[in-house]
Amino acid sequence: MIEVRPGGRRRIDRVLAPGYASEPEALPLPTLRERRDEAAQEETDLSYLRRLLHARIDIVKAEQLRRSSDDPGDEDVVTQLTAILSDNALGPATGSGRHQTLEPTRAGEYRRAAEALVGDANLSDVVSLSDDQLAETLDSYRGQEGSVSQRRREVQAVVDTFNAEIARRYAHGTASVDELLDSQRSAPTTEDDEA
């Protein structure tokens, strides 16, 4: 489960700290944007972890379905993996429907965390798990997915708070596009920008 530690140093601890998004109208515009961007990055990372968990849930459910069918056949879940995952990708979208332009920053860490949920069981060997182990694995993944989804909704509320305040400032004329463009032009360039 994803816990938020008061005073913690992780990004999620900062973003979901009680004072982080309170009184956004008192924050300078650059701070507002910085906090919004930090929260948006956390949302992206949580969305990535959620997608990983959904894929693992689909794999376990597919193996349970294969075992319960009248003719389980010889084709195991690993052989069907592409179809299982593509069915999920082509299905109706579930979630916020937000377009995300950011890349996850902790992909490897999240992959390891998702695998650790089933202990020593490897999903590439899902057919070797007993029915009870499959059920436990599915429960574990669903519990973690529920926790990730809850934190993601909380982070989305923070992003929405900052976006609303930024939009309010533009609507009331206390912020301008010219100011934004000037700040972007005066930002230091990196080697990547110069290439």
Automatic annotation (TrEMBL):
InterPro entries: RsiG-like, RsiG-like_dom. Residues 173-195 are annotated as: Disordered. Pfam families: RsiG (PF22802). Residues 20-85, 121-182 form the RsiG-like domain. This is RsiG-like domain-containing protein.
